[in-house]
Amino acid sequence: MDSPLPPRMDRRLALKWILAAGAGAALASPLRLRAQAAATAGPATPAGTGYGTDPVLTKPYKPGDFWPLTLSEGQRRDVAAFCDIIIPAEGEYPSASAVGVVDFVDEWVSAPYPDNVRDRPPIIDGLAWVDQAARQRFGAAFADARPEQRLALVEELAPLAPEGTPLAAPSQFFRRLRNLVSAGYFTTPPGMKDLGYVGNRPSATFDGPPPELIAKLGLADEVKW
Q1: Number of structural domains, the chain?
Q2: pLDDT tens digits for 176-219?
Q3: At what angle do helices 73-86 and 101-110 cross, to 10 degrees?
Q4: Does 83 reside within a domain?
Q5: From CA 1, how far away is CA 36, in angstroms rounded?
Q6: Which of 70, 74, 143, 201 counts the highest number of beta carbons within 10 A?
């Protein structure tokens, strides 16, 4: 199956995706997988001891210090493959997997908070579905398939499938994972640099938005400086 997706996905397209889809959009009901696909998934409900206390802000922490992580090594490899399709390396900017976004996704689905607990089953089940589909079609796990095969499968999941169709839940999974990858990447120093984000810096003056932008948005009467 030929894929029209470019080998390098423009990362600003990924940002448009996350803004358009809404980073907090709820997912549909969990996927119904075959028994052999479910066997490849990691623990769906990691043990936890509650929210705990505030962290020591001067102490460095590593993934898994706050609660047990959920993803298996195979699932983390699949997430890394998704990361580098959604936001690949480009010029001076690293790929999503190179700046720790896999750890971010693993921490997200492992955390004990309500939104994270809600997201855990669809992400786990979605990764199992992708691995099963890749093994059936390509004879390899998603992360081990050829790049063009992975792109073809992502191209199939990228459109939002109508409810009640076979790809409804897998496409919802991909949208949520895509949003998590984009959110994780664009809140890292390289991601913020890529966006040109210059917030949280002291400034002696503030000149307001550029006049040409005000005119373009038709806000000349509302914005006065």
Answers
A1: 1
A2: 999 999 999 999 999 999 888 877 778 788 777 788 888 888 87
A3: 120
A4: yes
A5: 25
A6: 70
